[in-house]
Design brief:
alpha/beta, Transcription Regulator spoIIAA, 5 strands
Length: 114
């Protein structure tokens, strides 16, 4: 099961994803991502701290979204993860293609500046 919601704060959109992000749910997640990306925010952020499971298909889709965002001049950020995701992201070196930061730092740099 997956729960996805989007929050708009001026030129920043934060997508909160909770639950299982696997091949069974990637279509639903991708629809939300692309819908929000079409709004062309300056920042599109993912809050992933409540992801309980992720698979390689979901990670590949995140990387695909990085490319789509770059083409639209939208900065993509992962603003919070859990320990499991942190380990996965370090192993695959996802931080080379996307900014990954703690939620507090994201809030300070991109939300509270408004």
């Amino acid at each position: 099961m997956i729960s996805i919601s989007a929050e708009e704060i001026n030129d920043v959109i934060v997508i909160h994803i909770k639950g299982i992000l696997t091949i069974e749910h990637i279509k639903e997640a991708e629809e939300v991502w692309l819908e929000q990306l079409e709004k062309r925010p300056k920042i599109l952020a993912f809050e992933l701290s409540e992801i309980t499971e992720v698979d390689s298909v979901a990670i590949n889709h995140i990387i695909k979204l990085v490319r789509a965002a770059a083409e639209m001049d939208v900065k993509l950020i992962i603003c919070d993860t859990n320990e499991q995701l942190e380990k996965i992201f370090k192993v695959i070196k996802l931080d080379r293609v996307i900014t990954i930061m703690p939620n507090k730092k994201f809030q300070d740099e991109y939300i509270r500046r408004i």
